[in-house]
Amino acid sequence: MLWETLILGSILLYLFYRWATQNFDFFEKRGIPYDKPVPVFGSLIDITLRRGSIFYTIKDLYNKNKESIYGIFFQTTPVYLIRDPELLRKITVKEFDHFMNHRDFFGDSPHDLFTNSLIQLKDEKWKDMRSTLSPAFTGSRLRQMFELINQVAEQSAKYLQQLQTAGNGEGVELELKDYATRFATDVIASTAFGLQVNSFENKDNQFFMSGKKATTFNWKLNLRFTLFIHFKSLMKFLKMELFDPSITNYFRRLVLDALKYRKEQNIRRADMINLLMEARGLFPTESTKSHTRNWTDTEMVAQCFIFFFAGFETVSTLICFAAHELMENPEVQEKVYQEIEEVNERLDGKQVTYEALQSMKYLDMVISETLRKWPGAVNLDRMCTKDIVLEVDGKRIEIKKGETIMIPVVGLQHDPQYFPNPEKFDPERFSSENKDNIKPFTYMPFGEGPRICIGSRFALLEAKAILYYLVRDFRIAPAKKSTIPMKLGNTGFQVAPKNGYWLKLISRSKQ
After folding, report:
1. Which residues are annotated as a binding site for heme?
2. What does the function comment of this entry state (predicted)?
3. What is the predicted pLDDT for the residue at 286?
4. Which of 128, 244, 354, 357 shows a CA-CA span of 20 to 30 A to 489?
């Protein structure tokens, strides 16, 4: 019996090894240099085991080889890492019809919110949803939504002022991520769902806590992501969901109840719920009469969910890194403050406006440089939708339907060939005199081509609004727990500092 067990175990172990290494000769057959993979983990062992950060892993893979194409492995899946900007132009723009979709990470369940969101939708479904949602992010819509964003920004500024008043008058030390996340949460609640939650006063409100639970990449969520990537069919058979059902059910009720209530009460508001009602024909407009697709409840809810999921983490992280860089670079912070003072002088005591905020070009430069040094998406992907032959360094490389390419955003944006002294925080790279010197397709924090992030302008507007109030009211200084220079922690698929975003806020009115 013992021998039978050992033999059976050996056979199963061998079969597992064969499965885990079946594609490891993929690039060797094609004559493409590649990173030697680790069985099961591929090129991502440090990320999967949370021994490192995806930020540093992608940078290291980018720097391992200078060829235009380098082979890496996402666990057992071979992936073409593209280093050449001209090749990236071809993939994301010129030959977009061959690389229209993102990689299918989590299957195609008709009930799953993530797989039905704009990020994961494919082909014609993606095109239809993109055109449906695009009106939400036009200049006129953003101008309308700015009033909602500004209300939340003012609330957040008052919260910090209250902390100052309650303190000893020497400034307040705080870990900024919680503050920035509450701001981002309240903005999304207002602009997407029409809710006023005020997470600064109602700290444990369900909207905020649901978002925190959905975006905290602890070992459980890391494991779920890994299992869904490798065993989609098994997860579907077991009826497992990527996110905790309590979270997804909460968002379903939130969106569907809002749709029903607004229809009954004929309530119209400049937010995403209103846009989805127009798309469904509940509030017909000229722009929606041409839309013929009938969107399901899940597809409707999914767009609000991904807007929330992306905004909750991405925007708050951008705010935190920008504030940290202003703390590390006081001369940059002073320039931002002087620009704010000039804007306020023109406003003559009036509330900041959309136009006034958009006129702040140096603040734009600061945010652009923050996104270069600390991109929210350190890598992007595209999946080949039909076979294509690419000319690369004098060689013909055939990429087949279903194969994946990776855009190493953080590698390109930290390449001294394109951004000299890349570890230096230098907003002047994005001045009107210098920004045209940036080589196209080396700076793409929001992607490029038709699949560029639809909400990028909204995210930038959010970040500018909160930074306006933060620098207007406070001088950002190092706290006792501040880490200078910034060091990232071993946070796996998330980009987060080792010791948090600690800083000290000193009221300008007391200086």
Report:
1. 453
2. May be involved in the metabolism of insect hormones and in the breakdown of synthetic insecticides.
3. 53
4. 244
